[in-house]
Amino acid sequence: MSFAERISFVDQHGGPRGLAELLGRAAALVHAGRAAGVEAAALGRTLHARLNPANDPRPAVAVIPVVDLAEVPAMFHGLVRGVIRGRSPDVTVWIDFHGGLRDSLALSTAAASVVALDGAGGVAAIETGPFDTAVLERLVATLEALRA
Q1: Smallest Cα–Cα separation from 94: which of 5, 32, 6, 12?
Q2: Which residue range(s) make up the domain with 12?
Q3: Torsion sign (Cα): 43, 55, 137, 29
Q4: Which of 1, 52, 92, 128 lies 20 to 30 angstroms, CA to CA, from 22?
Q5: In this predicted structure, what is the pLDDT of residue 9?
Q6: Per residue in 50-71, pLDDT tens?
Q7: Cα dihedral 134, 35, 76, 99 sign
Q8: Separation CA 117–CA 142 (nearest Å)
């Protein structure tokens, strides 16, 4: 079973999401727990703007926000999806209620992280905040190279 097949998510509408749907294109998973949500949202907007032409219906690099909420009991998952739906009506947010991405890649939930994926679903790079100019430029360069 590949890395892409081992990890599953749900979006704020309750639909299943997975890394397999990103195969064939470069992607940036912007991962954070609740503590780093504001930082991750700003980072995701910056990456999307830097890597994708305006009004492109299928961006060259998929920038996917992933929120790690493994600590939330199952009985509250619907409530949490509703809150996220209200706060992010236009951007699909992948929710990791099982901590699979965090556990597989030893990510922190206290700081934003970006997992750069190549077109085959392999992990090309991982960066964890803080995201100063040098780190951001290195990450953008890596993602631009992956989309070529």
Answers
A1: 12
A2: 3-147
A3: positive
A4: 128
A5: 96
A6: 998 777 667 789 999 999 999 9
A7: positive
A8: 10
User: Which of 76, 78, 88, 79 shows the shortest CA–CA distance to 30?
Assistant: 88
The yes-or-no verdict on residue 88 having pLDDT over 70 is yes
- Around Cβ 27, how many Cβ atoms within 10 Å? 24
Whether omega for the bond prior to residue 73 falls within 30 degrees of 0, making it cis, is no
> Which among 31, 25, 39, 41 has a CA at the least distance from the CA of 69?
31
Task: Report the domain count for the chain.
Answer: 1
CA angle 71, 128, 69 (to 5 degrees): 15
Rg of the chain in Å (alpha carbons): 14
φ, ψ of residue 72 to 5 degrees: the values are: -80, 125
Whole-number Å distance between alpha carbons of 31 and 1: 22
Query: Which CATH number characterizes residue 91's domain?
Result: 3.40.30.10
